[in-house]
Amino acid sequence: MREKRVYTFGNGKAEGKADMRNLLGGKGANLAEMNLIGVPVPPGFTITTDVCNEYFEKGKSDVVAILKEDVERSVKHIETLMNSKFGDSANPLLVSVRSGARASMPGMMDTILNLGLNDDVVVGLAKKTGNERFAYDSYRRFVQMYGDVVMGLKPVNKEDIDPFEEIIQQVKAQRGIKLDNEMTTEELKQLVSLFKKAIKERTGQDFPNNPMDQLWGAICSVFDSWMNDRAILYRKMEGIPSEWGTAVSVMAMVFGNMGNTSATGVCFSRDAATGENIFNGEYLVNAQGEDVVAGIRTPQQITKEGSLRWAKQQDINEDIRSSKYPSMEEAMPEIFGQLNALQEKLEKHYHDMQDMEFTVQEGKLWFLQTRNGKRTGPAMVKIAMDLLYEGQIDEKTALGRCEPNKLDELLHPVFDKTALKQAKVLTRGLPASPGAACGQIVFFADDAEKWHADGHQVIMVRIETSPEDLAGMSAAEGILTARGGMTSHAAVVARGMGKCCVSGAGAINVDYKVRSVEIDGVILKEGDYISLNGSTGEVYLGQVNTKPAEVTGDFAELMKLCDKYTRLVVRTNADTPHDAEVARNFGAVGIGLCRTEHMFFENEKIKAMREMILSDTLEGRKKALSKLLPYQKQDFYGILKAMDGFPVNIRLLDPPLHEFVPHDLKGQEEMAKEMGVSVQKIQQRVNSLSEHNPMLGHRGCRLGNTYPEITEMQTMAILSAAIQLKKEGFDPHPEIMVPLIGIVNEFDLQEKVIRETAANLFKEEGIELPFRVGTMIEIPRAALTADYIAKNAEYFSFGTNDLTQMTYGYSRDDIASFLPVYLDKKILNVDPFQVLDQKGVGELIKIAVEKGRKTRPNLTCGICGEHGGEPSSVKFCNRVGLNYVSCSPFRVPIARLAAAQGAIEG
Ligand code: ADP
Ligand code: MG
Ligand code: MG
To answer: Known catalytic residue: 456?
Structure first.
């Protein structure tokens, strides 16, 4: 049997269905499903994503030959259902050719509308519909889109306007009119021939007249668009594999541009920015799909409630609103009723917020797309929790609906209320994607990238954004556009990225050529600061202060739900009481890694530290260490107090000593004076500490084993701080961790020092305090001999940064020189320092856990590398039976959610 490459749908029947999205793409699968559940959809067919891969393997002509029969048969299928004929001038059928991948990639790939028109067919279309203007409007749109997408007539420089827009503006200027819909039929005809002429002149190619040729050109160009730059970038950002491919859906056109009983729009079953359960959307009368999302005409609201809100935001009074910008609910109440019922039906069917496209052709409603809507982090949480409360989904599903990394958006700073009151409001636009953003103005995507790379925070200011601006949007703190509504590409993409966006700020006048923007008399240039409030649509002059976010409301409820299902607990990596507090507020139940080295850098401490390192006698070192002791004790006191009641795992001194010594003459002279020795002596000692490969040199437990007095001092500091807290009525749980063990003896000797020091201290203080001694597993040999190490070590903490470094033999600090090439050549799929390598490094973890627990069944195991806050790594840690993960404070909620998901997924 031949492989099935094309799936038809139409008239309440379909060969595909919703769960075939891998093969039919999200759009194709849902077009099929909508047919099956009785939502009106124009008939059509979908070419599978497998064919896309075939296309890139075999090339264009082979694939066209393979598909020919199937496509011709499927076009007949549409013709039968539409009772018209493709390419027939008496009774023509027009189609759209649309892209659609497994994961939705809004606006990243190409779509062509009104395909099948030529100089003959357009006459037939005019006759058939009795609407000549409409026929030529469709024709000029088709030539414009096809000329751009398939034939490649695009602006040459970034400052240039679109070549087709330029022609339209010339034609309009000749007649002194402003709006597209003021053009006469004659002018539309003129546009068609001017467009074709420009295409021929600039690309050297003739515009294809034969509809079947047009169709093949469009199908191939949709496949090609899978590999365009913006689609590649989007996939990279979203982690979508290029092997997935795009499907192509071809379907009968329905027309929103047939006059005032026709319209087109986009709607959401809930608010994609805030998550509120409010049906909302935008539409345009007498327009075609692209008009709404392209941000060229500012669309009107679908619901009356939305329209009132919009008018308030735009300072438009009620008379003007209701006469000039009525909502669909007011202007087309009957259609609105149908739309409202269908959006509810679709949400109930998919049990998730839907993002839908529709067109009204002369009073008849058609759906053209539905998908689970992109949403902001806050909306993601609210919608999941609301659907749970409404009984649409269960707890596990609600947890699964939230993407751990997107919680980051709920942790972003928000504007400080008092700072906001004092800020100067320049203007207001639509609150397209919430958040607080400050930065310097740039006007072009590539500048946003460049400035960002140079360490600037930028706000991208555009007349409108197009999918080409993706990389710039991603580099910017926020986006401000003059045109475009809540459903414009800018808004949809910004919400998907969790980027603050204010769109449709009509009062701003952007001048790309001189790189400035005028807002209500204020002229701002590239590099000037502005601030955006994506939640209210307000635009402020200069920088407005921000403050950290809090975990409240639905977010707090979600976190509670995590605790109900999780097995792994989440600790934090914190070196200061402040970080410990922040993390505790985010739900951390202990510190998984407290580094001590930074504590030696502040003012007086660094001098004592240097004195310790530079002296070459035991006495000298002890003297210096005794100066450090009270400082260290103070530090540990603060941290143990901030994490009261929870374990605090403190790592003994780890970095190579030379990092602490003065390398400059001034510092060396200072130390010479301090210690009463010659500068030469200091320099000699500094030189003697220099190493060829310090990360593999004299560091970690190798320090404690060569200078046990350091371990002694640190143990004293930790335990005496704990004793003091205990006496004050607190409940400290110190853990002392020996770093960089490779050989069991390294650990055992250090453990002995720690235990003896503790015993002496407890005797002196007359108080016993429970504490634990454990080790970091970060050298492969330690993992392989974990059964020996666990004899005396009470816990393991996997230091996966070093463990990754040593397993791969990649220096963490030098990987940048080859990582991009490795990723590009697919030698590596991801940076192993960001995402735990489960096969290699993970295997070592598994071995260590198993061996360790053979010796000590209740051995506590945790992870404290960067990976402890990365969702897929957290899930791995859950699978191999670790007890906790530890991550930076701002990733704690992310790790908690990933841990709960891991427990549910099993
Ligand atoms: P994107 O992925 O960029 O949204 P789509 O394939 O969804 O691209 O199409 C772009 C626009 O064209 C949408 O607004 C859609 O509703 C409209 N459109 C697509 N096909 C048809 C059709 N057959 N009839 C009318 N409008 C269509
Ligand atoms: Mg679409
Ligand atoms: Mg380490």
So the answer is: no
